[in-house]
Design goal:
The strands form seven sheets. Strands 11, 13, 14, 16, 17 and 20 form a six-stranded mixed beta sheet that branches. This protein is mostly beta strands and 325 residues long. The chain contains two helices and 27 strands. The termini are far apart. The longest helix has 32 residues. It has three domains: 87 residues, Immunoglobulins (Immunoglobulin-like, Sandwich), CATH 2.60.40; 81 residues, Immunoglobulins (Immunoglobulin-like); 78 residues, Immunoglobulin-like, CATH 2.60.40.
Length: 325
Amino acid sequence: MPMTRPRLVVPHFSEVETSWPVNCTLDGLFPASEAQVQLALGDQMLNATVVSHNNTLTATATAKAEQESTQEIVCNVTLGDVSRETREKVKAYSFQGPNLTLREPNATEGTTVTVTCAAGPRVQVTLDGVPAAAPGQPAHLQLNATAKDDRRTFFCNATLEVHGVILHRNRSVQLRVLYGPKIDRDKCPQRLTWKDRTMHILQCQARGNPNPKLQCLREGSMFKLPVGIPFLVMLNYSGTYYCRAASSRGTDILTVMMDVQGRNPTAITIALALLTILGLVILAAALLYVFGVQKRHDIYHVRQSSTQMPLEPKQPDEAVALELS
């Protein structure tokens, strides 16, 4: 048995009802396999797993405190009639919460919503940046629900100091506000001027909870204008359209005037004439070039007797006869 005591590794503090590991090791035992190890939390014996390797003995176990208190972990190693023992203190704490609640998770627009964050004793809570009056006290927040508060998230932070260490826990909750349909006037123009046979998108959007259904119908007919997808604008699409957003919370209607302008026949005629003239000019230039090259392409014979004679074009038959001579 060595003169050193076992090495006992445990956390300095742990939460109540939470399991944590215990590790005890002793080197220099011989024979290590003959040694006995006991691990205990206070008066409670722990179920330890013991492993020996060469002259080293290791015992592991899990422990759990049932209530807030400071308890001792004991590791005792015995070989023959000699024992070595190590003790460490573990503080068990209780960190309850935080509990974040909405009095009305689905509130109607215009009603008062109360948000509450609470935790256990000695715990300081902060709700959306506003701390509670004192540790152990809840934090409250009230607001008049509007459409802008839909899907708003509230955050609660709880802190507890244990042995000089600050522990943190966070919770969040989302508020849903029920409100009627609203067509976005900034994204849905009330007057449109488009050209015939061009592609466009009607960028109208509607908000609401629950989500509304949006349709744009032409006045006096059941013709439905596509919303949010590309479509080919036709001349007969001109007219007045009523865009209607509807849900179980109500309706919202917006009038949209569409003016589809036809193509300019004069401009089209001028463009076609210019293209025709340009094509004729290109064709004439090409013909002149081809005929000019063909005219200059012939066979000439140089008379050796005199250098004063000009070159004369020869017919192909004459050229062959001269070459044979």
